[in-house]
Design brief:
The chain is α/β, with parallel strands linked by helices. 31% of the residues lie in helices and 18% in strands. A hairpin with a 4-residue loop joins strand 6 and strand 7.
Length: 544
């Protein structure tokens, strides 16, 4: 990549003291005169001919600027990505992570200092929800830049607008703040929302998006510039956005909608849930984006050094499902929902020895074995047997009118080809049977790739039933919604991926919702009504 000026050597020139040999207040034996106030306080000594001119890595810069920094695994992953940004190999990065992790220290304080150490002739812009917070980040960046032996301009050292000796520098302001007339090569947006009220306000969100379009992105340097021969060459122009998710329509949600449009930017996403999810539960992003792989096993804490798993489980219990999913798992869902409302989502029914009669595994299968194909979705759900009735003395009574009570025990989705789908189904059924949860029926939508699975497994899986795909996914969702609204369907925590998808439906992925609707409607119309609730009972279709 061609830059506008040569890179600064790793070690800054040493300043000889003027009229002082004991260090004192005006001279640092390690860094020389940190203010580079040559003329009055010192003068430049000749450079050490043995000093290396190779720039420090970001990791080495952090060790020099902040010796007590803890290089936890998540931080090392992010440091490597930010190194690519500084090297000009990555120009769009989104980082979503839980609160109090230390993201601002790394992204908004240390990294701007490192970027200017590498490119002292360029500009960095820092924005946050308030000018005061942005100035705090800028002040710390200035401190780290200076303490590592880099020169500041003598005529501009204010915390919100400071310059290097090569006339690059850092500018800072709150979102919706005064960036007009200024340009930058690195833009850092750190927590653009003050809290849930801002993130949940459509007015605040729209103002932020207008500011991003009209001001922030318009002040960025072009990604390409003209070379001397008239050809175009890459130019250092990068964006880094780091935040904790509050709302599904926040700036990250808006950017993801843009990525699905006609002019995607190709963001690289580092999504860091507090507790690692299984592959089938992980978020999906537009095809134009690339996603940093999660290195952890399902259930593993993100930063056990600061927030071990037992502490995270306590936080989950205190905050509740909605805020836990948003703030800690980075999976915000609509506060109300669209077809399925959040207030309808209930925990499992209280019970002692009731059993499922029957238990079904409902599957929505569409596979190509590619990341951009539809998901294969699997939902395990059951109809609870009626509660035994007893009189005041505890003696059994004649059964009354049964109540429809469905529970969703588990939901997952995967990008599978046919061989992987067959293997997963057989392993899942074997694992469920080992837990005493042997499904009475396996429902396969009789569309897309369902018939291929039925043809392959019909002699190996008893109780496999084809389910006709009548109507649209939306029509089936509207048919199942009254059951959820009436509290007749309850959800275990292992069904969280389904709940998230339900609250977004009909936006986003729809495979789990469709598998759930097939199962719920089948249990209601083809089995529960057969118990005598309907005037025209329908036959039981189980084949076991």
């Amino acid at each position: 990549m061609t830059l506008l000026a040569p890179r600064r050597p790793a070690a800054a020139p040493v300043l000889a003291p003027y009229g002082s040999v004991d260090g004192g207040l005006l001279y640092s034996p390690r860094h020389g005169d940190p203010w580079r106030d040559v003329g009055y306080l010192g003068h430049r000594a000749d450079a050490d001919p043995t000093a290396s001119t190779a720039p420090l890595s970001f990791r080495d810069f952090i060790a020099d600027a902040y010796p007590r920094y803890g290089f936890h695994h998540w931080a090392r992953v992010l440091i490597d990505l930010l190194q690519l940004v500084a090297d000009g190999d990555l120009n769009r990065l989104i980082v979503t992570c839980p609160p109090r992790l230390g993201k601002s220290l790394l992204v908004s304080k240390l990294f701007p200092a490192y970027f200017l150490y590498r490119h002292p002739h360029l500009f960095v812009a820092i924005a946050s929800y308030s000018g005061e917070l942005a100035y705090t980040h800028s002040r710390e960046a200035r401190h780290f830049y200076r303490i590592t032996g880099n020169a500041l301009s003598r005529d501009s050292q204010a915390v919100g607008n400071w310059l290097t000796d090569l006339r690059g520098g850092c500018i800072a302001a709150g979102v919706n703040g005064p960036f007009t007339g200024k340009g930058y090569s690195l833009g850092v947006i750190d927590d653009p929302y003050k809290g849930p009220a801002d993130a949940g306000s459509s007015l605040v969100r729209e103002r932020l998006i207008d500011w991003l379009r009209a001001v922030w992105f318009s002040r960025a340097e072009p990604a390409q510039i003209e070379a001397g021969d008239g050809a175009m060459q890459p130019n250092l122009s990068a964006q880094v956005i780091v935040l904790t998710r509050w709302d599904h329509q926040d700036v990250v949600g808006w950017l993801m909608d843009q990525e699905a449009g006609a002019a995607p930017q190709g963001w690289h996403i580092l999504n860091l849930p507090a507790i690692a999810e299984s592959p089938g539960e992980r978020q999906s992003f537009p095809r134009a984006c690339s996603v940093e792989p999660d290195w952890r096993s399902p259930g593993e804490a993100l930063c056990p050094e600061r927030f071990p798993l037992p502490e995270l489980l306590k936080i989950r219990a205190r905050t509740g499902s909605y805020w836990w999913q948003a703030l800690y798992q980075q999976r915000p869902t609509p506060a109300a929902g669209f077809i399925f409302l959040r207030s309808w989502i209930k925990p499992p029914f209280p019970r002692t020895s009731r059993r499922f009669a029957p238990l079904v595994l409902s599957c929505d299968l569409s596979f190509k074995g590619e990341d951009d194909s539809a998901y294969c979705a699997f939902v395990l759900m059951g109809l609870l047997s009626p509660e035994p009735r007893k009189d005041g003395d505890g003696r059994p009574m004649a059964p009354g009118k049964p109540e429809l009570e469905l529970e969703v025990l588990w939901a997952t989705r995967h990008h599978f080809g046919l061989p992987e789908t067959i293997r997963f189904l057989l392993q899942a059924l074997q694992g469920l049977e080992a837990q005493g949860l042997r499904p009475s029926a396996v429902l396969i939508e009789d569309a897309a790739n369902g018939p291929a699975v039925q043809q392959t497994l019909r002699r190996r899986v008893a109780g496999m039933l084809p389910i006709p795909a009548r109507g649209s996914k939306g029509a089936r969702a509207h048919a199942a919604a009254p059951l959820v609204e009436a509290g007749q369907v309850r959800f275990h925590h292992r069904a969280t991926p389904l709940v998230d998808e339900m609250l977004r439906f009909p936006k986003g992925t729809k495979d789990l919702v469709d598998a759930f609707c097939h199962g719920a409607l089948w249990l209601e119309t083809r089995y529960w009504r057969g118990l005598g609730v309907s005037k025209a009972p329908l036959p039981v279709l189980l084949t076991r």
